[in-house]
Each structure stands twice: as structure tokens, then as C-alpha cells.
Amino acid sequence: MSRENSRIEEQHIKRSILNYSSEEKRFYRASIRKFRKSHVLYVILLSSIALLQVISIAFFTKGFSFCRSPIRHTAQYSPEYSEVKKFDKAVVLLVDALRFDFVVPINELDPIYNENYHNNIDIISELLNQNDNSTKNESKKDRVQKSSSLLFKFLAEPPTTTFHRLKGITTGLLPSFLDGIMKLNDRVVEDDSIIKQLFLRNKTIYFSGDDTWSRMFEPYLSPKSVPLESYNIWDLNTVDDGVFKFFNEHLTSKNTSNREWDILIGHIVGIDHAATKYGPNHITVKQKQIQINEFIKQIVKSLDDQTLLIVMGDHGMDITGNHGGKSSGELESSLFLYSKKSSVWKQEHSLHENNNDFYKKINQIDIVPTFSLLFGIPIPYNNLGWPINEISLSDEENNIHMKLALEQIRKYQLDSDIIQDKKDNNTLNTLYEQAKLDINKTHAFYEAVLSAFKSNWKSFDYLSIGTGIFLLLVSVTLLIIITKLIPSIVVNQMVTEFVQNILICTLITNICICIIFFYFGYFGFIKNIFWCISLATAIGIIIGCFRAILHRYNIKWVLAKFFSDFSDYWSMVGVIFLFIHAGLFMSNSLTIWEDRVVHHLIITFGFLALYEFIFIPNRQSTTALATAVISEQQGTLSGVSPSLANSFSLPMTRFARLLGTYHSIVLLLCTRSVSTITSCREGQLDYCVPTFTTEINYSWGCTAVFIVVLILLPMSIKGYYNLLSSYQAAAPIWIDYLLKLFLYFDIIYWVAIVIETKYDVTFINFTLINVTIARIIICFTFVVCNLAWMVGPLCIKLNVENADMRSQQTTIIGYSNIYGAPYFLLVINAFMSILFFNKPLAQISLALMCNQILSIMEIIDLLNIKENIIGPIVLSLLSYQQFFNTGHQFTLSSIQWDTGFILSDTVNFPFTEISIMINTFGPFIIVALSIVLLTLWSQPPDILKPQTLLGRLVANCGILVTYNAVLCLSSFIWLTYFLQHPMVWNIFYPRFIYASIILLITQFVVIFATIGFASGKLIGHINNIFWK
């Protein structure tokens, strides 16, 4: 009924304004056509610049050609391998995230001791002690002992993800970051590996566990293998139980007829999933460790003398239970070798000492030649590991090991041709000749080769890198000129010219460059048609844009306008903020503290605004100052017309100053509150206490705060609407009904998650309940709410003061914010969708973000700086702050993979990927949608024509994109500069990846959702009612 009344009121307004003469109808239709044409052309123009930036990112990424093409050679068998063979069979148990301190005894009085993850896997120390006790009576002189057990600190190379680590421990290679693309594409590893070599030697390989193995090595595994889906972090038992069952069938049961395997591999993930879900300091981690401890005991009892047991981890974990980075906890895993044979290898130290630093450290890739020699198979062709010394019992055996490893490394060094430096090659040739003469010098040659490979492994195409930097720099220049230097009203007139020039120039450059490419077979550093078309398109866009600009303006004017436009107070503040943020990437120590810097920049803006309102009262007002005190009966307190009230001539009233002071304080308090939610990254841990942890997220205290904040959210939004008399028609429907209904189900969902996490409730199927609620919520927020917004009424109401038709006076309540109020309802839809994919602490932060955005809109409006760059820049900073305060950092390990299973308990493309993307980049999506509120908030329809309004909101959108493009450009430049920096792959490269994704997401949302859909529809709808 309320919606029908709103429709009737809109039609009444339209009839009261429109004159239905044929002349005015023609004028109205022409106005609509002009607006629609401008709208489409703006979308094409911005899409062209976005395409230019996509091409720049593609070229820059192409320059890092470190997703290495495999050398498809296979190592050949030599009779010498059979001379050193010691075992016929092996049981390999890979325990995901088996951090080294999980398997060594820790004194309970030690400050680092934690009962949830220390001393629970004690079978390994027991076996080591048995070996030591058997030789207690030996003299110190004979301390080089015969033993059947070895334990090593197993050092991984970053990135510490399962795929990369599995590739390292099977091929002996040092995988790169982008090799993970193979995982996404489900490609079989093409490099030579111990799995491939076993297959070629007719060995039968049984496998069960993490299905990453099946994607990497499917052709080589037995058909009886049972890979199990392992991506669902919420599922702690399915994979492990499957492995236990598989091993029971083929090993631990008394039925020996099923032991038709030569290699039995199991990969269990329970510890990793439990630590990721709950954090390492949780009873569930202890339970999983005890379970694994008992499992290893069963395996040991079932072994015969010809079978080697290998227990190892692929990586460790940090203090939060995550992995992927380079902290010591993530790099230090475990390797345990056990055999019931005696005199299998020598042991150089007593390995049961209660001191982590005492244990020998080996690289993960060293397991590859070690395994190969123990089983008499060729060392994989591209291996870069070195055999463990302890497996050699005699000098003769050691000499054979060294010789075989030396020849394999030398062959790969020569064939791969990765080391190009002549000086390095001469040094290696000399060391190799020395090693052939003296076997004791082989390790010196190996160390030199490994060092040279690490230095030369990643080949860089500097022409492509330079092209990417140049194209992105040009795109930033174009954005600044088009969205800031040229007045928006002029851009509105030029947009047709821009689009025509872009299309024509792009067509011409593609024809010309492609002809050159096909004639010569190449075009400079461009080797295929895809990159040829990409470069031609980029050049065409650049020429087309500059042709339109230089047709009206010269370079001298552009430079003069640049310095004049950025010379006012708030513009200079915005530029300083931008340079500070972009300048962080020039240092690794500054980059890791980006979260703190962003927080302080927003606080600085809040205090500057507060100072303006308190100490500079003579600043003139804007639309919001007049409309903030609108009376429902009289229109304004001053009694003037809305048009006059919305002019810039009125002074700042005391009420306006109080209002501005209030919003500045709200912004400061919300910003300070969300800053207490911290997620620490490597390098911060000595000075950062993480509060965004699983333990806190799923505590009842956090849940109580979460419920209170969400209950208060509709009330706070309603307060902002009431301030501008906009709580009319659609607003109560959204805020009082749709938003509250969503929050009700949201609270139920996360309370159920907390109960499931904290208590062992078996009589309720929480998975079914949670997935059902999640799908209902997403259908409601993504479909129902957005469809309702498309067909719903505006936030206005007619107030008729006199019943007499001849003297009737009608006031339109909500007129002053007729654009902003309904548009923010769409932002509420986005808030609901994104809010749900975040954990309780993150939802608290996002709820406060809602208040931050509305307070920023009021401050910007009160200070009359709607067209100033400071507005988009502060909103950009807000998106980054909320990214950090929702539990993220610019690292791989901070990705909240478990949120991918909110809509399904299994991997379900594309919903799993979309869920993770929304969780990670939600704040940037919200800001990209909200940016036009800088123009639309407190903007009545009788001040600006639709085309002018569209031009102004496009300008603000352009500044937002420019801010993110400058950060992306800075990451390009400093990543290139720091290519030889030891932290490049841990800090600078991930920051570049995130900067590129953020820029692309911002562009997509701004162009197609904010401008293409929402703004165009809303302005067109209001223009249909209040037209001139």
C-alpha cells in the first residue's frame, strides 16, 4: 500500500510540473535522448581507459616470465643406482602443516609450551630415543651411530602453499609464485619427478588424501588410488578418515593380500584445516594431533624390514594458523625417516635433544635425490636438491651418491641454459673440474649452482615491464586530464569526439601493426598475435584520447590547469595523502605498515575537518547546510525557496558548524574503533597484537558485540535519513524491514557457526542449516533487494497543507536529497551482500564503515568540496582501512579460504571463488558503489541538469580510479626497482598482485554497476519526473 501511494505521489508531481503541450513533449524527449546518449558514451570512454589499464597490467605481468616452461627431459637409468638401493617399498605420510615444533619434545616449563599443539605427536621422539638407547653403551669416539630413525628440520621455500611445496618435494625444483596457475588449470606436472621415475620403473603407487596429488600426477598413480576433495577448510575429518580407511585396507589390517603397492602415499589435512578454522591454540588441533600420533603408531607396527616410512610436512603455519608466506613458522616443517632395519644410515648427532635449534636443517628439495638413491631410481632430470649425508654408511657409498648427484646437477645446468652470465659459467666450470678430481669438493659446486640458479631462475623481459609501466602512466595521465583538468561540462560536450577518435584510431593502429607483424613474423618484442593486438589497441586508445584533447587544448594549458586546480587547501591535502600512500612501496619496512599509515591518514582528515568547523566559521555553506534544517511544513527555516537555499551564498550557520563537528567526531570515533581489529603480517609481529583471530571471532563476547552493533545499524542509518527529511516512502521499507530481516538471519547464521565451533553438538546438522540459511540470504540480498530497488519508489513524500484546491500548497518532503537517499538504498543492498561473507569482527567493522561513509558525505557537503579530489581520496583510504580491519593483509596467507564454503560444503565453481573474492575485496566494491554519493548526496533536482550531474559524478569516479591506478603504478615501479631485493617475492610482488586486482575490480564496479546501471537509471528516473 505504501509503495502504491508513493507511485501515485510521483505521478502527481509529474503532472504538476509537466505541461503537456507538443512543444514541451518534444523538448522532454530530446532531453531524454541526449542524456541516454551521453550516458552510453561515458561508459564506452571509461571502458576504453579501463581496457588500456588491463593491457598495461598484462604487459607488466608478461615481463615476469618466471612461470617457467618445463624442460621435458627425463633422467636416464644407470646401473650405479642399483648399487646404492636400500629399500623396495615406502610408506609416505604427508601431514599438511606439520610444523617442526609439533613433533619434538618441548619442556612444559618452557614459556613457548602450549598444550594444544606441543608434545601430542610423541611417537617420533619415542622412536628416536629407542635408537639412542640401543647405543648408550658406545663410547663417545663411536658416537657416529647405526640407527633406523632420522629427524630433520625440513625448510620450505616460499610461497608456502601445498601445491608449490608438493612440486618442490617431488621434482626438486624451486617453484615460482605463478606456477600456481597450473593448479587452477588442473594441469599435470610436466617436469621430471620421483613419481614419474617410479612409474617408469614399473612401481605401483597407491595414493589417498588431498586431491592436489591427482591433478599433478594422475597418469602415474594407480587406478586404485582414492583422492579426496580437500578445499573445504570447515571439513576436518573427511580427508583424514578416508586416508585412515585406505591405509587400513592396504597396510594396517592383517590381510596382506591387499599390499600390491610399492609406494603407499597418504596426505592428511586435519591439522591444517583445524588450525586455519580455529587457530593453532585450540583443542581441536590437539585432538587431530593425537589422532595422527595413533595413526603413525599403527603404521609403524605394520611395517616390514624392506619398507621405509617417511613422515613429513609440506609447510608449517604462522601464529594464526595460516600459511603461504615466509615467516619461520611457515617455513619450518618436519621430515622423519624410519626403518625397522638396523645399520641403514649414520646419525651424526643425538637427535632426541630437547632443543629445536639442535636439529639439522635441510632444504625440502633435498628429499628428491635422497629418495631416488634409497630406492635406486634415477634422480629427476631437473632436480636442484642434494642427497642427505646421513644415508651414506660408508665412504664408498657416499662417493657414489656424490658422483650421481654431481652428474645430474651438471647435466641440468648445461641443458637448461638458465645461467647466462659468462663469469658465473666460468666459475661453475672450474668448480666442476675440481669436483671431478676431488669428490669432497662436489658440495662446493652444488652450492654455487644452486646460488646461481636462484639468482637467474626468474628471467625478466624488461621491454614488457617497461611497456606496462608506460601504458599505466599514460592511462593515469588521461584520467587526470579528462576527469579533473577539463571541466565536466566540457567533457560532456567532448565525449562523442573522444569515443569516435578512440574507435577510429584503434582500428587504424590494429590494421597497421598487424600487417607489420604478419609480414615480418614479429613486431619488436611481440612474439604472437595476441600481444600484437593488445599493443595496437593500447596505442589506438592513447592516440584517440590525446587527439580529442589536443584538438581543443594545448600542453601549456594542461600544465597551467594542473597547477591551478591542485593549488587549493583541500586539493593539496589530497595530493599529500596520495603521495604518502604511494610512497610506502619504496621500502619493505613501510609497505608492511600500510595498515597503520592508512588509519592515520583518515584520522588526519577527520581532525582537519573538525578544525575547519570549530575554528573557521566564515566558510560558506552548500546544499547540505541549508537543507540540514529543512522544516517539513515550510521547506526551509529561512523560508526561502529550495533553489535559493541550495545556493552557495548563505553563510555557515551555528547549526551547520555543530552538525559538521558532530560528523567529524563520528568519523574519528568509528575510525579509531575499527583500528582495534588487527590482523598482523610477517614483520609486524613484534609490534602488533592480532585481534582478528578465530578464537576471538567465535567467542561469545565478540558475538555479543556483533549482535549489538548490527541491531544499532538500522537506527544509525535512519538518523542520517531523518537529518535530511529523507526517511520517506522507500527508506522505511529498506531500513525497517529488508535490512532488519537480513540482519535477523545473519545473526542466526553466525551464532550457529559459533555454537558449532565451540561445542561438540552432534544431534544437529549444522552444515545443512547453515548452507540453507546462506542460500536464502544471498537470494534475498542479490536478487530480491536489487529487483525491488529497480522498481521501487523514491524517498520522497507530498505534504499538502491546504485542502482548498484553489489555495493548496504542496511541499515535497525529501526533495533536497532526492538523488542520494534512494541511491544509498542500493549501497545498503551491497552492504548486506558483502556483510554476510565476512566473519563477526569484520561485520562489526563494516557496520561502522556504513557510518563512516555517511559522515564523510555530510562533511564533504558541509565544507562545499563536492568537486574536490579530497572526497574520492578519503573514500579510497577508507576502502583500504576496511580491507585491513576485516582481517586481511596484502599477503597470500591472509586470504580467508574458509569463506569459500559459506554457500556450499564442497568446492562449487564459481560460487566458491566468488565468495572468497567478495570477502577479500568487499570494501573496495562498497566504495566503488558509494563514490557517486559525493555528487548525489543532498543534491536536489532543480540545481543541475542531468547531463551536468552525470559529468560530475563521472569526474569523482575518475578520481577514485586514478587513486588506485597511481598505487598500482607505484607498485609497478618499486617492484621493478627491487627485483634483487630479498623480500621482493614476500612483500613487493604480492602488493603488485593485490594492487592490480583492486584496480580492475574498482574499474569494473564503477563502469558497469555505478555509472552504467545505478546512476544512469536513478538520474533518468528522477529526470522523468523533475525535468526542465
What are the segments in which pLDDT stays under 50 over at least 5 consecutive residues? 139-146, 180-186, 349-354, 620-650
Fold-level CATH name of the domain at 79-132 and 145-385: Alkaline Phosphatase, subunit A
Overall, the morphology is globular
Portion in helices: 55-70%
Tell me about this structure.
It is a single chain. The chain is mainly α and 1028 residues long. It has a domain at 79-132 and 145-385: Alkaline Phosphatase, subunit A. Helix content is 59%, strand content 6%. The protein has 37 helices and twelve strands. An eight-stranded mixed sheet has the order 5-4-6-1-7-8-3-10, with helices on both faces. Strands 2-9 form a two-stranded antiparallel sheet. Helix 8 links the parallel strand 4 and strand 5 (226-228). The longest helix has 42 residues, at 984-1025. It is globular, with a radius of gyration of 33 Å.
Task: Supply the key terms.
two-stranded antiparallel sheet, 6% strand, 1028 residues, Alkaline Phosphatase, subunit A, 37 helices, eight-stranded mixed β-sheet, mainly alpha
Could you give the topology of this structure?
Blueprint: H1 2-17, H2 22-62, H3 80-84, E1 89-95, H4 123-133, E2 145-147, E3 149-155, H5 162-171, H6 180-184, H7 194-200, E4 205-210, H8 212-217, E5 226-228, H9 238-252, E6 263-268, H10 270-278, H11 283-302, E7 307-312, H12 328-331, E8 332-338, E9 345-347, E10 361-363, H13 367-375, H14 395-416, H15 422-437, H16 442-456, H17 462-485, H18 488-520, H19 529-552, H20 555-565, H21 569-583, H22 588-591, H23 594-615, H24 623-627, H25 642-645, H26 654-674, H27 694-697, H28 700-723, H29 730-758, H30 766-791, E11 797-800, E12 810-813, H31 820-836, H32 840-862, H33 870-885, H34 911-930, H35 933-936, H36 946-977, H37 984-1025
Helix pairs in contact: 2-17, 2-18, 2-19, 2-36, 2-37, 9-11, 10-11, 14-16, 15-16, 17-19, 17-36, 18-19, 18-36, 21-33, 21-36, 23-26, 23-33, 26-32, 28-29, 28-32, 29-30, 29-31, 30-31, 31-34, 32-33, 33-34, 33-36, 34-37, 36-37
